[in-house]
Each structure stands twice: as structure tokens, then as C-alpha cells.
Amino acid sequence: MQVALPIDPNQCPLCGQENLCAMEVERASGVKQPPCWCSQARFEASLLSRIPEHARGKACLCAACGKGDAP
């Protein structure tokens, strides 16, 4: 049986780099942030399907992965 590690909402679930999600920054700091870039983005289904199932809806992609610029 494979055990999923806890998801860090500050790390991209695809590449593991910081995702710099404005919503997470606001949640952690209590300081109002402008809307996150991802709130206006459209993601291809093929990109979203690459996110591990246990991480879906728990952490944002980084901008590079979201734009398809990362591996």
C-alpha cells in the first residue's frame, strides 16, 4: 500500500517548486493580496490530469507549470 505524503499548499504538485499562490500567501500572512494569476487562467485537461490524485484541489501549480513551461 502506497501512503501519500501530506500536501504542502505552497509547493507546486508537479515540479515541487514554490507556487507563490496569492491565496496561500494571504491565508498564511493575513495580508490582503491581489488576485492570484491562477484565478484567471484556463488549464488544459491534459495538464490537470498530470497532478497526482491525492494533490488535486490542495495545492496550486506554479506559473511555469501552469503555462506549460516546466517539465
Assign an overall shape: globular
Distance between the termini: 28 Å
Q: Give the DSSP E fraction (strand runs of 2 or more residues).
A: under 5%
What is the subunit arrangement here? Answer: single chain
Write the layout of secondary structure elements.
Elements: H1 22-29, H2 45-48, H3 63-66
Structural summary, described in words:
The protein has a domain at 22-66. The chain contains 3 helices and no strands. The chain has helices at 22-29, 45-48, 63-66. The longest helix is centred in the middle third of the chain and has 8 residues, at 22-29. The radius of gyration is 12 Å and the shape is globular.
Which descriptors apply to this entry?
71 residues; mainly alpha; 3 helices
Question: In a nutshell, what does this entry contain?
Answer:
With 71 residues, the protein is an all-alpha fold. Helices cover 23% and strands 0% of the residues.
